[in-house]
Amino acid sequence: MKTILYFTAIISFFFLLGCSDKTNENALNNEASLPDNMLDKLSGLKVINSSINNKKHTTSLLYGNQIAIERIETNSSHLQKGEKLICITWHQKPDPNWIGAIIPGKLLSIEVLESVGEKEDFKYQKFEGNAMKLQKDTLGNLHRIGLLLNQKRAIVPEL
To answer: Which residues have CB under 8 Å from 72's CB, separation 6+?
Structure first.
């Protein structure tokens, strides 16, 4: 009888040590969250594709409106009237909850490309840094615009 009580006490002790009242601060990835002033830019847009750059350790998502999706499906690289594309890029970081997993970390940039008038008339903005400041340097913008316009749509099975 003493043996049964002894083993029950030991097992109960291990259960008590295994419990913790700590809240999981790592449950939400707040570092990758978009600033509130950028959330309204994404309203009504759909994800077109995603990409991972292993050399730069970045993850990107490309969003677009229905006009952009229709242009991409026709394999055209010319911006259509009313089209809007947004590319969001994050730095990658290891997931604290899963060993070996990589998740978005610090928000690096948000690029906005939208048609403002007739064909080939567009506005390109790039927001960078923690404060999402508008980048004033326009060197290399045409290259980035070309890359955004030549993106293909990800093939996703319908359920």
So the answer is: 48, 64, 151, 152, 153
DSSP reduced 3-state for 105: strand
pLDDT per residue over 78-124, tens digit each?
Answer: 888 899 999 999 999 998 888 899 999 999 999 999 988 765 678 99
pTM score, whole prediction:
0.78
Helix, strand, or coil (residue 76): coil
Q: Which residues have CB under 8 Å from 103's CB, separation 6+?
A: 29, 32, 92, 93, 94, 95
Place of tokens 């990835």: 29
CA–CA gap between residue 98 and residue 30 (Å, rounded): 17
AA identity, residue 142: L
Measured CA to CA in angstroms, residue 96 lies from 6, 18, 23, 25, 93 at distances of 37, 19, 14, 10, 9
Q: Are 63 and 55 in contact (CB under 8 A)?
A: no
- Kindly report the number of other CB atoms within 10 A of residue 148's CB atom: 20
